[in-house]
Amino acid sequence: MAVGVIATLIHSGLSFNLESPASALFFWVFIGLLSPPEKASDAHVPTSRRRQIVRACLIVLAAAFLAITGASDAKRIVASIHAAGGNRHKQSGDLSKAQEKFMAAVRLWPESPDYHRSLGKVMMQMGDPRACEAHNRTALVFWPYFRDALLDLGTALSEQGNFEAAMKS
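The structure assignment produced for this chain is given below.
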């Protein structure tokens, strides 16, 4: 059973969304499965040296896993605060401040298609359709069927006079 649990932990660490607190919870549940004594009658028996080493390694691994998920969760939270500020500045008409805020959000969370699209939208409003195209193309890398990014990409391409590409996007 321990081998299966460890394999699941390794798989989860490599392919599960590390930006989710659910992954940390998942990890701790499996750590809990490994922690109890092998038999209920062994609760009073000291654990073997090997088992103590395995537990210590798992605790260190769990701490590292939580540090990784905690850091990425913190980055996402700060990025969303910047994006909210960008939306406020955009609504008030201060496009240069909106651009700064969305650029900060993209730097913190470059995999966010929403932030790339929002930055592209501001760039289009500032008269830079090439930057709008670039950010919407980036958004589409992370979410290929993002309808709003596809529409904004088409608008940016048509603003550049590339009507054939705009029709295809």
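Interim note for the steering committee: Helices lie at 2-15, 21-34, 49-92, 95-108, 113-125, 129-142, 147-159, 163-168. The longest helix spans residues 49-92.
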